[in-house]
Amino acid sequence: MRLSIDHTTHYRFSGPATYGLQRLRLTPKSGPGLSILDWQLHLSGARVQVEYDDENANRVTLISLEPGVHDVTIRSEGTVETADQAGIVGRHAGFLPLWHFLQPTPLTQPGPRLRALVSSLDADDDRLATLHRLSTAVLAAMAYEAGHTDSATGAEGALAAGRGVCQDHAHVFIAAARALKIPARYVSGYLLMNDRVQQEAGHAWAEAHVDGLGWVGFDVANAICPDARYVRLATGRDYREAAPTTGVRHGDHDEAMHVTLAVGQQQVEQ
Questions:
Q1: Which of 4, 69, 136, 156 is the residue whose CA sits 20 to 30 A from 83?
Q2: By its UniProt entry, which Pfam families does this protein fall under (predicted)?
């Protein structure tokens, strides 16, 4: 499947920004089931400082804001070729050992609700079957509904709310998998929707490591393993390590942010 993606983030400051750095993870991760055909990054009000691969093997572009700027636009766009791998990403690779993905983070710290969810599972030696049951249990415990959590909400808080978005489902799944001694990580990316091209935000899901298969994806919010409609951007132990855009800015001014995203399928001539 050939997908075209156009992702723009626009910042407007009420006064001139004196200094700012942004860390961009906006280049898809090539690998099993995903090839980049072309990809570009366009900036207005900022400039590239350096590009590198981080500890999670994410391609990172570090940009700085132009001094005194009021508006900054970050646009990434391109075309990728995808294939259905039944959610299987494959063997572990990169700079970090598998045990690193067993460690809790502030966003995946287990609490009493998370432990109760794990204890309710019928876990057995079939790790893949256990993970599928976990995905079902997380969705049953948390309805998909926006407006009840934010980017700082951890797994325990999301479970307490009883509802959340894809980020929350991923964090709860990851925290529970780690409690079961299964390495797990967060994935940020894009999803081709069946009913529209224009979207309000990107997507997120989780991956867990299964012996003999390697990393396997679980999109709890949609009750499916990722297929050819999914594009992986970045991975990490939680949202903070895989967020498409993070950074710092100096200047006592208000900030407004607007995001536009289009994910569409291109027809390939035979």
A1: 136
A2: Bact_transglu_N, Transglut_core
CA distance 162 to 174: 17
Torsion-angle region of residue 234: left (phi > 0), alpha (psi -120 to 50) or beta? beta
Please write the tens of the pLDDT for every residue from 182-208.
Answer: 999 999 999 999 888 999 889 999 999
Per-residue 3-state assignment (H helix, E strand, C coil) for 9-42:
EEEEEEEEECEEEEEECCCCCCECCEEEEEEEEE
**Number of domains composing the chain:** 2
Quick one: how far is CA 218 from the chain centroid?
Answer: 12
CB–CB of 166/204 below 8 Å?
yes
Q: Are residues 93 and 129 in the same domain?
A: yes
Give the residues across from 135 on adjacent strands: none
Do 164 and 64 lie in one domain? The reply is no
Full residue range of the structural domain in which residue 97 is found: 88-242
What average pLDDT does range 219-234 have in this prediction?
Answer: 97
CB atoms under 10 Å from CB of 218, counted, come to 27
CA atoms within 13 A on the CB side of 163: 6
Per-residue confidence (pLDDT) for residue 267, from 0 to 100: 80
Report if pTM > 0.90: yes
* Secondary structure (3-state) at 92: coil
- Report the alpha-carbon distance of residue 101 to residue 174 in Å, rounded: 9
